[in-house]
Write a structure and sequence with these properties.
Length: about 300
Amino acid sequence: MNSCFRKCPVCGHDEAQAHLEKGGLKLMRCGHCSMIYANPAPAEFASGQYYDTTGVEYYLSLAKLESDYAAVRFERELRLFRSYCSRGAVLDVGCSSGAFLFQLKTRFAGAYEVLGTDVSGPPLDHAESRGIPVLRGNFLEQDFGGKKFDATTFWAVLEHLLEPKRFLERAGAILKPGGFCFVLVPNMKSLAARFLGGRYRYIYPQHLNYFTKATLTKLVPDSFGLVEVRSTHFNPIVIWEDWRRGMNEVSNQDRAELLKRTTAYKQKQWLKPAKILYHLAEYALGTLNLADNLTLVLRRK
């Protein structure tokens, strides 16, 4: 398989040193800004072809769809999003099967004009079947006909991109002045990543970029002001299972089944006492920037 050699996706320098190797995946650490990134990047992930071919089996699996469309799936993202954007035109970049926009549209009927975009055709077909309008193809090349949005979202997207900064720059270009951009990525300094190292399931070929709070904020283009940075989400089951599994790669089927299982736990009323302890743990980890994900809120200048 062909590979794509790259410079640092944050600062553009070519001063990296080897950081970690897992299977055929080689992670480098930039000597200039400390960004960790895959180099070389496998061609099918660099181009996005994987998400329109091999990856479809995962994104359209029953377990994944059932979890994505569950009411609890985007509860944190919706709460954050609504605190800054109560109505308006919303573009979800990398929308996959359209689950976030579906929740936004159905829970807050009439408040939002939604549009999803992605490179993966079959998941977009599913989004359309659920009433979500979509635009197909490379976000960097799409023509929005001069339309401006009140908000753009990148939920678990930037870690997959060869040129994440260009995507944020493009988002800034299509936002109204004062419009918001929301970003969520895995946290390379989370408790899970620190404890598990190369065993962590989210160190895998689909992820080309591995952000910390410092490197993620350095990625922000000049067209944006930084409003807020949060560290959110915590899945102790991942820590336990990945520790037992060792360096063996987690299959897409196993990923989908774990997502289904944890989503089901969130919906069980008898686990309410445990949920209180869980939220306290998540809050404590978030305060220390050790939770599983990082979330940025940006505002167009």
